[in-house]
Design a protein that fits this description.
Oligomer: single chain
Number of strands: 0
Number of helices: 13
Number of domains: 1
Radius of gyration: 31 Å
Order of helices and strands: HHHHHHHHHHHHH
Distance between the termini: 65 Å
Largest sheet: none
CATH class: Mainly Alpha
Shape: flat
CATH topology: MetI-like fold
CATH architecture: Orthogonal Bundle
CATH superfamily: MetI-like
């Protein structure tokens, strides 16, 4: 009989110990197993982090409150913002601006109109300008970004040189120049001017995202399968490149509101003060800024708080969706 192999004897001894030690064999078997858990999508993972982020919650709360206030502003406003209820108390020499009194907690402006009602209704006009300026800027930027990112070559070079020229001009100066070209100032001219400032921002961002998608595996696989270039761009590249652009739009909303308020302050917005807007109210208040600063403080605080809300929410979204910023 051949001598027993030492390795076999050791293996037999281990098996005997495992068999006589009760639950040890079970532990040995379970030690080599791995618990399988379902995967988590990027959006679900980002939302899980955002729910615990106080900065996002504060920004989202301010934004939600602003949107709701703007939608129901005409309903909850205590008075008609265009009617001078306290006009009989306006004395150009002694009392040009009526102060707070019962029914008018913030007082009135120089035309006797309720200041609180004008602030509430003014949120609606501010939201309209900010949202539409962002949407128009996003649409224009997407057109340029898709052309540059999808075709490349001389098309990319031409589009990016146009974008570089627009970005070289200070945003407020560019918006002021475009708004000044209008024959008559209006809310539409403000929207167009602010949107034109946002176009190069969206174009450059979308172009960079699409170039990153251009050589990805799923795009190369689609081309190898004979998918048309149009389908590759709109079904594979564009949907996967929109994430950073959507996040950027929340940040652009804040700058759009500030730029629109600046243009209205300079007199390039809607000249009809029967439709109040925060930037317009800020411009009208400069006549009484030394004696009645509250006329400028209240709309300025509204602009600052709303812009802060959009900025906090946008920055939190960008950190949550950016793998390099995850904690």
């Amino acid at each position: 009989m051949s001598p027993t192999n030492p390795m076999n004897r050791r293996k037999d001894r281990i098996d005997d110990l495992a068999a006589t030690s009760g639950g040890t064999a079970t532990l040995v078997r379970e030690a080599g197993t791995v618990d399988e858990k379902p995967g988590v999508s990027l959006i679900a993972s980002a939302w899980k982090r955002l729910r615990r982020n106080p900065v996002f919650l504060i920004g989202a709360g301010i934004t939600l409150l602003f949107v709701v206030l703007a939608l129901v502003s005409r309903v909850i406003a205590p008075h008609d913002p265009a009617v001078g209820y306290l006009i009989d108390q306006v004395r150009p020499q002694s009392n040009p601006v009526p102060g707070p009194q019962p029914g008018f907690p913030l007082g009135a402006d120089d035309a006797g109109r309720d200041l609180l009602s004008r602030l509430i209704v003014g949120s609606q006009q501010t939201l309209i300008v900010g949202v539409f300026a962002t949407l128009f800027g996003l649409a224009g930027g997407m057109v340029l970004g898709i052309l540059a990112g999808a075709f490349g070559g001389w098309v990319d070079a031409l589009v990016m040189r146009i974008v570089d020229v627009l970005l070289s001009i200070p945003s407020l100066l560019l918006a002021f120049s475009i708004a000044a070209l209008a024959a008559r100032p209006s809310q539409l001219t403000v929207i167009i001017a602010v949107a034109a400032v946002q176009v190069p921002i969206f174009a450059r961002l979308l172009r960079g995202s699409m170039l990153a998608q251009r050589h990805s595996d799923h795009v190369l696989a689609a081309r190898a399968l004979g998918v048309t270039e149009r389908a590759v761009v709109f079904r594979h590249m564009l949907p996967n490149a929109l994430g950073p652009v959507i996040v950027q739009s929340t940040l652009v909303l804040a700058t759009s509101i500030i730029d629109a308020a600046a243009l209205s302050f300079l007199g390039l917005g809607n000249p009809n003060d029967r439709q109040p807007e925060w930037g317009q109210m800020l411009g009208k208040a400069q006549t009484y800024i030394y004696d009645y600063p509250h006329l400028a403080v209240y709309p300025a605080l509204c602009i600052i708080v709303v812009a802060l809300g959009f900025t906090l929410m946008g920055e939190s979204l960008r950190e949550a969706l950016d793998p390099k910023s995850r904690r």
